[in-house]
Design brief:
The complex is a heterodimer of chains A (153) and B (194). Chain A has a single domain, classed as Immunoglobulin-like (Sandwich). Chain A has two helices and eleven strands. About 11% of the residues of chain A have low confidence. With 194 residues, chain B is an alpha/beta fold. Chain B is globular. The chains are: A alpha+beta (153), B alpha/beta (194). The interface between A and B is large, with 52 and 63 residues.
Amino acid sequence: MAALPGFRFSLALSGALLLALPALAGDSLFKPKPRADALLPVDQAFQFQGARREGGALKLQWTVAPGYYLYRHMLKVSVDSPAKLSLAPLQLPKGEGKQDPEFGAVEIYRGQLLAHIPLAADVPLPRTLRVRYQGCADIGVCYPPQTKLVAVP
Amino acid sequence: MSAVLSRQALGALLIAVVAASGGYWVARHFQPAEPVIPEGVPRVPAANGALEGQPAPEVVVNDLDGKPRKLSEWRGRWLLVNFWATWCGPCMEEIPLLIRAQSEQGARGLQVLGVAMDESDAVRKAVREMGFNYPTLVGDEAVLTAMESLGNSLGAIPYTVLIGPDGVIRYLEMGGIDATKLQMLLNRFLPASG
């Protein structure tokens, strides 16, 4: 029994160190905040380069800045004008697999992304497309969905 | 007896050091990576720290019933304004922490307020399914404007602002808040008990 007080003290010390050190190593309130200027404006993080006609398809291109990614399931393209025209579904390359803590298994795109929409020969071209996309930064923040109206050349 | 004691103490100390090193490694390992900024790209402050210590501007956003609500309605409480959305994974991860904080720290004067940059139906569903115990406002442009006036010109979320009972901004945080950080934040500013 005489050994117990020493053991308890050491156990308490273990607990204290165990609790204190992650806080010291981690994002402490008392540590200077990471420079918040390490984030890009949304149009720099996800540069949408518009649509172009190439061969029998419409091509849409994005450049995603390093440290950022776009969600595949948040990429949508629809015809803005003329209103009643419809297009073939958007064709996207296989993305990088990501196990998202909230959304489960998803696909994301980094770097260059080239998507295309096949054009049927007998269907008129749209004048304007409505392009929607959304992405996040690896640092753990997300940007609001972006909607761009883009003229088809 | 003292040899036994010192052997036990030494053993426990060794366990403490190993455990602490493990905790330190885990904390360092899970630090988020800083994004790389390409040369020549303008950098925008994500959270305008200069607003800390300044009176919070009046912000008006609709609630889920479409009724305009002002931040000043909660004057007198420690108001933790959390900007979030259902399409934002890091935002959704911290919601359970905020629900727990409201439940456990409400007596200390804490009032969490969710402000969602989202569609009302998606927000209603999340509020119901996750069991929100604090009010939620919703909008798009109005929320972007509110965030901008509270120091976030990027529109990125999650974004959290702590406003004191006197209406003064005490803390701004871009990015997710984990349980440790939230506890430290509340312990730093809120009174010890209600």
